[in-house]
From TrEMBL:
The chain crosses the membrane at residues 20-40, 52-73, 157-174, 245-263, 275-296. Its main location: membrane. It is a multi-pass membrane protein. It is found in: Cell membrane. It comes from Candidatus Fimimorpha faecalis. Residues 16-298 form the ABC transmembrane type-1 domain. This is ABC transporter ATP-binding protein. It comes from the Bacteria. InterPro entries: AAA+_ATPase (IPR003593), ABC1_TM_dom (IPR011527), ABC1_TM_sf (IPR036640), ABC_transporter-like_ATP-bd (IPR003439), P-loop_NTPase (IPR027417), Type_1_exporter (IPR039421). GO terms for cellular component: plasma membrane. Keywords: ATP-binding, Membrane, Nucleotide-binding, Transmembrane, Transmembrane helix, Transport. One of its GO terms (molecular function) is ATP hydrolysis activity.
Length: 573
């Protein structure tokens, strides 16, 4: 909870003023029944209209004050709770930006989305109730009880017993409901995961006519959530009839015994009227408290889930004196071993050794899952290795400031990930302070300028839905331009031409060749024509480098590369 409350920050004033105005509102409301009794006893029953007008004016003034105080309390409560929610989302988002891929894998993308939306909304609602209703209800209940005992202590003990009875029932119900609410938010993650997966893969779903199958999966997840909510809400719903039972029992008892007190002259009509008002105030306060406990029960799971994100420490750390500038692009791997799940799965890389001089082009080939992309993930330091060392410019990669490291690496991937915005903005994403001229020069270098100028609004054409209004080859050229404007010393091309046709590949390859000139480049590909001219080609299999050399050397060796290049596969067992 302390982690959450630390996020109030600039909304402390609103958080403090809310209960103050709420307390003033309650004081006004508690005095109103007392004034009503004075009007009945000293005014109406004695036919003294002057007293009626005097106390009526006081009552009107108090009602106006109560309305003002209530409005101010509501305003500040809304400001404080909305501000807390805003700060929570911002802090979580900033924290997530520092996460390594291993941290993100721990929570899952769907889980993080749920925490930033549903969980934060729950905390926002609970916080607003706590600073307003949780102040109003107990204060109203205590002051109403005090006024009731001042009027008649014997009758007041009756609904005091009712309060104790109701509190016991409420405690039992909430204890049972809290267990169910903890499961509810886990099911929210499953539901969001189903939605995210379906929407991102909608083309595959429609291509295989699997709409009914996906609907069935979603319905199952939604039904599980529904069943849990019904179970939790059914427990909580028992509170209302129990509340009404106590309220009506108290009213009946007070009516019965109060009438006797009036007959024997121990109470006045005004006092019994006020007592009824205070009874209802106490019971309504109890009902509000029960709502608060329900909301707190629901939000406690959300508080814990949000705190987990805010307290999560990235598995990647900068050294105490990190290197902030890099000179060239030489890279060394020395006996590197890596597993995505340390100690829980097989190693993705095994004893990797390689040395790449600045300006060299290295081609990496191999079957799916052999470890090609894992090497680039480690160069970017998306993950930390378990054994061995990786050096960049002769410096241990863990001693380089992460932003400096990643700014020196340009990436062109198979999945281009363009953003909603103009073509110019997507190119400038590689260097946010780049001028229009720099972006256009980068587009020309990437062979993208000609097709961009044919677009309806040229460089100001708005891209939507990850650039779906462009062809795949055009999106790839924009990705190359985005990397070019950053002007990195090291370039990583990960299957950059695998999903485009041969004719478009030629255009994209020309753009990549221009970009690769003078840079240390990793080219990961299935197509051997893409890596044929590399200074060094590495062949990977099951996390190991099984062959390395130039194209000519590997052909002469007649090993795995030779088999792939010629299509002459031989069983080497």
């Amino acid at each position: 909870m302390r982690t959450i409350l630390n996020q109030i920050r600039q909304y402390k004033k609103a958080t403090i003023l809310t209960p103050i105005f709420t307390a003033l509102e309650v004081i006004m409301e508690v005095l109103l029944p007392f004034i009503t009794a004075m009007i009945i006893d000293k005014g109406l029953q004695q036919e003294n209209m002057k007293v009626v007008y005097q106390y009526g004016a006081i009552m009107l003034l108090m009602a106006v004050c109560s309305l003002f105080f209530g409005a101010m309390a509501g305003k500040y409560a809304a400001s404080a709770s909305s501000g807390l929610a805003c700060n929570l989302r911002e802090s979580m988002y900033e924290r997530i930006q520092t996460f390594s891929f291993a941290n993100i894998d721990r929570f899952s993308t769907a889980g993080l989305v749920t925490r930033m939306t549903t969980d934060v909304t729950n905390v926002q609602n609970a916080f607003q109730m706590i600073i307003r209703i949780a102040v109003r209800a107990p204060l109203m209940m205590v002051t109403s009880m005090m006024m009731s005992f001042l009027i008649n202590a014997q009758l007041s003990f009756m609904f005091l017993a009712g309060m104790v009875f109701l509190a016991i029932i409420l405690a039992i119900l909430l204890k049972q409901a809290s267990r169910v609410f903890n499961l509810v938010f886990q099911k929210y993650d499953d539901l969001n995961a189903s939605i995210q997966e379906n929407v991102s893969a909608i083309r595959v779903v429609k291509a295989y006519v699997r709409e009914d199958y996906e609907n069935s999966k979603f319905t199952k997840a939604a039904d599980q959530l529904y069943q849990l909510f019904v179970k939790a809400e059914s427990l909580v719903a028992i509170n209302n009839p129990a509340m009404m039972l106590v309220v009506y029992a108290c009213i009946t008892a007070v009516s019965w015994f109060g009438t006797k007190f009036i007959v024997i002259g121990e109470m006045t009509t005004g006092e019994i009227t006020s007592l009824f008002s205070y009874i209802m105030s106490v019971m309504m306060s109890l009902m509000m408290l029960s709502m608060i406990f329900v909301m707190i029960t629901m939000s406690s799971a959300s508080v814990r889930r949000i705190s987990e994100v805010l307290k999560e420490i990235s598995s990647l750390h900068n050294s105490e004196s990190p290197v902030k500038e890099l000179k060239d692009g030489s890279i060394d791997f020395k006996h590197v071993n890596f597993s995505y799940k340390k100690g829980m799965g097989k190693e993705s890389l095994k004893d990797i050794n390689l040395h790449i001089e600045s300006g060299e082009t290295v081609g990496v080939i191999g079957g799916t899952g052999c470890g090609k992309t894992t090497i680039t993930n480690l160069i970017n330091r998306f993950y930390d290795i378990q054994d061995g060392k990786i050096r960049y410019d002769g410096i241990n990669i863990t001693k380089i400031k992460k932003p400096a490291l990643r700014k020196s690496l340009g990436m062109v991937l198979q999945d281009t990930h363009l953003f909603t915005g103009t073509v110019m903005e997507n190119i400038r994403y590689g260097k946010l302070d780049a001028s229009d001229e720099e972006c256009i020069s980068a587009a020309k270098l990437a062979n993208a300028d000609s097709f961009i100028r044919r677009l309806p609004d040229g460089y100001q054409t708005v891209l939507t839905g990850d650039g779906n209004n462009l062809r795949q080859g055009q999106r790839q050229l924009l990705a190359i331009a985005r990397a070019a404007v950053a002007d990195p010393p090291v370039l990583i091309l990960d299957e950059a031409t695998s999903s485009i046709d041969t004719r478009t590949e030629s255009l994209v390859q020309d753009g990549m060749d221009a970009l690769m000139n003078g840079r240390t480049t990793f080219v990961i590909a299935h197509r051997l024509s893409t890596v044929k001219n590399s200074d060094c080609i590495m062949v990977m299999e099951q996390g190991k480098i099984i062959e390395r050399g130039t194209h000519e050397e590997l052909i002469a060796a007649k090993g795995k590369y030779y088999q792939l290049y010629t299509g002459n596969f031989v069983d080497q067992k």
